[in-house]
Amino acid sequence: MAVARPRGRDEFAGALRGLGDRYWDRHPFHLRLHTGKCEPDEVRSWVANRWYYQRSLSQKNAAIIANCPLPDVRRRWVERIVFQDGRDGGEGGLGDWLALADAVGLDRSAMLDERHVVRGVRFAVDAYVTFCRTHTWWEGVAAALTELFSPGHMAARITAWRRHYGWIDPAGFAYFESRIPVVRADSAYTLDLVLNHCDTRRRQDAALAALAFKCDVLGAMLDAVDYHGGRR
């Protein structure tokens, strides 16, 4: 049986970008969130549940690093952990997300003890971390390519929230404002990494499956949040 030829670089990049149709920006909950149709408790539920994802990102990035034998990749990838966790407590992406919790009126202690995290979100996020622990480093990197689709979505979120949710303290937008330029640079590096290291058809197919899986993780999170609504 003949082995399928590898996709050309542009063809492979196009196939990865083509999975943008599965990104969570098209989910009914996000459409409602960005058109001002969510009640305050629904916004708070989204923030509280997204916290579980945020606080798990460094664990999945550490798993990718642990599986990667290449020092230059490890050195670059560890920057994501520093960005998210900060160099001291209360800094970085996690600190900014807690500021968002404050801005929408969530009790910080309730955020930290995760009492509002619904089981579907917990299950989906844990599955993502486990995927990165149990698959190759380049599959974990490929799964992170949802960042190709996120900068415009985050920019639209800031605009929409300012327009529709005047009750949110604008100080809470710091996470998105700081993350947008970083993720633009990260996505270019990540895409190049996947294109360079997934140089067989088998690897390319695995990378596409990894990115599709990550899109499903994000969609499952919103399914769970949408189902539970603002019940807290």
TrEMBL record:
It catalyses: 6-(2-amino-2-carboxyethyl)-7,8-dioxo-1,2,3,4,7,8-hexahydroquinoline-2,4-dicarboxylate + 3 O2 = pyrroloquinoline quinone + 2 H2O2 + 2 H2O + H(+). GO terms for molecular function: pyrroloquinoline-quinone synthase activity. It is an enzyme of class 1 (oxidoreductase). GO terms for biological process: pyrroloquinoline quinone biosynthetic process. Residues 16-223 form the Thiaminase-2/PQQC domain. Gene3D superfamilies: Heme oxygenase-like. InterPro entries: Haem_Oase-like_multi-hlx (IPR016084), PqqC (IPR011845), PqqC-like (IPR039068), Thiaminase-2/PQQC (IPR004305). Keywords: Oxidoreductase, PQQ biosynthesis. Its EC number is 1.3.3.11. SUPFAM superfamilies: Heme oxygenase-like. The keyword Transit peptide does not apply. HAMAP family: PQQ_syn_PqqC. Belongs to the PqqC family. Ring cyclization and eight-electron oxidation of 3a-(2-amino-2-carboxyethyl)-4,5-dioxo-4,5,6,7,8,9-hexahydroquinoline-7,9-dicarboxylic-acid to PQQ. This is Pyrroloquinoline-quinone synthase. The gene is pqqC.
